[in-house]
Amino acid sequence: MLENSKAFASYSVDDAEKAKHFYSQILGLKVIQDNDMGGVLTIKIKEGISVLIYPKTNHIPSTYTVLNFPVDDIVKTVAQLKAYGAKFNRYDEKDLKTDENDICRGNGGPSIAWFTDPAGNILSIIEVDFE
C-alpha cells in the first residue's frame, strides 16, 4: 500500500536558526529553510533521503534517538564532531556504558555514540561494516 510513498522522518526543535547552524555547520549536511512555512528545515542526507525539522514553541526534547548516522570509523567521526563542537552523551548505567571517548561498545551490537542537537534531541553515529 505505501511501498511507493516517499516517506520522511520529522521532529521538532525550539530554535530553527540554531538547528540550521548545527545541522549545516557542525554536521555538514545540506539544509534548506522554508520561511514561507514558518522556518521549517529540510535536511538532505543522501539522494532521496530527507528529514523535516520544524520549530515548535513548546518543544520537548526527545528521550530516544531520533536520527542515526551510520559511519565506518566511529572513533574518527566522534573526534571530528567533537572538534566542531558536538556534545556527546555519557552513560554509566547497568546496561549502558560509554568509554572515555563517549562510545558504547560490546553491548551485543555495533559501537554507537549519542549526541544532541541544540534543542536536546538525541542523535547517534553507529559504526557499521560497509563491505
Automatic annotation (TrEMBL):
InterPro entries registered for this protein in UniProt: Glyas_Bleomycin-R_OHBP_Dase, Glyas_Fos-R_dOase_dom, VOC_core
Cross-referenced Gene3D superfamilies: 2,3-Dihydroxybiphenyl 1,2-Dioxygenase, domain 1
Domain VOC: 5-128
Protein origin, superkingdom: Bacteria
Protein name: VOC domain-containing protein
